[in-house]
Amino acid sequence: MATAAPIITFKAGTCEFDASSNPPKITPKPTQGYLYLYEGQEDELIHFCWRPRSASLRDPELDLVMVPSDGSFKPYQPTQGSSKKSPTNGRIFTLKFQSSSARHLFWLQSKSQHSQGESGWFSPRDLKLGEIVDQLLQGEQVNVQEELNNLPNDQGGQDDDDDSRNRMEDVRRESQSGTAENLASGDPFIGDPSNEGEGSREGGADGGRA
User: Fold this and answer.
1) Residue (of 105, 7, 93) closest to 57 by Cα position
2) Do the Cβ atoms of 7 and 39 come closer than 8 Å?
3) Which residues contact 134 (CB under 8 A, 6 or more apart)?
4) Contact 97, 120 (CB under 8 A)
5) What is the distance between the alpha carbons of residues 92 and 108, in angstroms, rounded to a whole number?
6) CA distances from 81 to 4, 84, 86, 121, 158 (A)
7) Distance CA 2, CA 122 (A)
8) I want to staple 73 with a disulfide (CB 3.0 to 4.6 A). Which of 17, 66, 134, 185 is the partner?
9) CA–CA separation, 144 and 2 (whole Å)
10) Using CA atoms, how far apart are residues 84 and 88, in angstroms rounded to an integer?
11) Mind listing the pLDDT tens digit of every residue in the chain (210 residues)?
């Protein structure tokens, strides 16, 4: 079965959440990954997915079919306020559901944009990215390309993993699409990076690029 092109993709990792401790303990997992959303070709619902960067688009570890307005994607913060700082030492978003107590936590794998290096500080760009994902989960019509183009232009951010300054193995069309530059900067983009030669096998899964 062909896999639909992701609506949006960005670098993120998963977390373990221990609610039995006081306060609850969040432990980020070291695996480098992609968080992405796509619209199912049969159910026409948003799929919320995560996969390691070494896995193919067809093989996500997490693939959740989202009923509109059931899920929310928000920064992990203990209170509703104006603070942009996470209570953890990283920028973590929480996927919650109205229909159950299940939750999934994800940490952004790009370097903090804070001038003093505060790793838990959400930049306007981080917050806007989370807002785009949340709007899609609510079933809203979002012009993702336009929203990505209008993301705040934070300066100085690079990925803090080993491939931050190198082109990734599965990206080979950087001269045509600029995908490698987006990945190296931690920028979100439309489509999936593992696109070389995949058009016929994955139904045009290379998609558009921001």
Assistant:
1) 7
2) yes
3) 72, 73, 74
4) no
5) 6
6) 37, 8, 11, 14, 28
7) 36
8) 134
9) 22
10) 12
11) 556 899 999 999 999 988 888 877 889 999 999 999 999 999 999 999 999 999 999 999 999 999 999 999 999 875 554 455 555 678 999 999 999 999 999 999 988 878 887 888 899 889 999 999 999 999 999 999 899 888 876 654 444 444 433 322 222 222 233 433 444 444 566 655 554 333 322 322 333 222
8 Å CB contact between 210 and 196: no
The C-alpha atoms of residue 50 and residue 83 are separated, in whole angstroms, by 28
Give dist(CA 210, CA 203) in Å, integer. 20
DSSP 5: P
Burial class (CB in 10 A: 0-12, 13-18, 19+), 50: buried
Whole-angstrom distance, CA of residue 57 vs CA of residue 194: 7
